[in-house]
Amino acid sequence: MAKVSSMPGEREWIEDLRSYCKSSSAVRLGIGDDCAILKLPRGSEILVTTDFTLETVHFRRDWHSPESVGHRCLARGLSDLAAMGAKPLAAFLSLALPPELVRGRTGQPSWRDRFFQGFLALADRCRVPLAGGDTAQSPRNPFGSPASTGWVLADIVLLGSAPHARAILRSGASPGDRIYVTGQLGGAAAELAQLAANPRSFRSYTAASPGESHPHLFPEPRLAVGAWLLKNRRAAAAIDISDGLSTDLDHLCKESGLSATVEAAAIPTHPLARKLPGETLHLALNGGEDYELLFTAASNVRIPRRIANVPVTCIGEMRPATSRKPRVLLIENTNGRKNARPLPPGGWEHYK
Ligand SMILES: [Mg+2]
Fold it and tell me: Exposure pattern of 302-311 as b/e (b: 16+ CB <10 Å)?
């Protein structure tokens, strides 16, 4: 993992950060000039995605370690690239911090340093160079108590590449396609519930440790799965599950002009969600932030049970267009009988 040392001045700090940012064949010129210069692989298109990470909306400083905030900030953008089968080219980060998070206590890394340790550890692993961005001091919160300082605001821009006209879109599904998900669902929401119940116990989680699953604190973007699906032309349509299965499948249905059925019993649930028996299905359907992939493939296309070492499960089928809303039906087994009920989008939505 990259180590970023405590440095107070912005210029020195950027120099320090620059020395830890890996070069790559895609970035001809990275941090240090007015613009970055990227080289696009021949025959490719650029894919661009942006994501906010806002304190109190996406994380809480008293719940999440800075490493987790840095990891999640990058993981959200990488997951969008994964959903379209794109290869990451470069990341750009604009970060506003209150001044006390820039200065570490003597001998201790600052909040900012720890944020970048989490960010750069994932960037290294996913081979995405940080090629630029901006820093600013965030203003004091005028509506808070006298002690209230500014908030952490981060905006990440990720650029990826895909061969011309080959990116996997939400709109590519056809009636009869099977619907698949990667990994297990509901874990992130279940871990968030644990975090809310006992925030202090989680502040010590500063890195995703092998063999331990922290789907909320350290989600794993499914880049290798997306790349495999694109390379092997197996997926017709895809989306990442950032807002919850019910909401993201509805997005895919809308963009493809279709409806869908999902078998409740087929949905792979995360062990953390299964620890909450009354809520397991609800968490898996509506929890959000799992950052797994949801994709469709024609019924005659073979989809392996594991792709890039990630389990893949068939959970339903795309159906013809309908004027019915919700567009998704959930099929449940009750007393040996199959019942279909409408599944409204129940995941995360801003301004709701
Ligand atoms: Mg997305």
Answer: ebeeebeebe
**pLDDT band at 139, cuts 50/70/90?**
confident
Mean pLDDT of the chain: 90
- 263 CA to centre of ligand 1 in angstroms: 23
The 10s digit of each residue's pLDDT in 251-279 is 999 999 999 999 999 999 999 999 998 99
How far from 50 is each of 28, 158, 159, 255, CA to CA, in Å? 22, 6, 9, 20
pTM score: 0.92
CA of 170 to the centre of ligand 1 (A): 10
Q: Name the residues around ion ligand 1, CB cutoff 5 A.
A: 80, 240, 242
Cα 334 to middle of ligand 1, angstroms = 33
| Distances from the Cα of 14 to the Cα of 33, 109, 116, 126, 152, angstroms | 12, 16, 12, 22, 18
Say yes or no to pLDDT of 351 above 60.
no
Which own/partner contact pairs does 7-12 have at CB distance under 8 Å and 24+ positions apart? 8/102, 8/103, 10/135
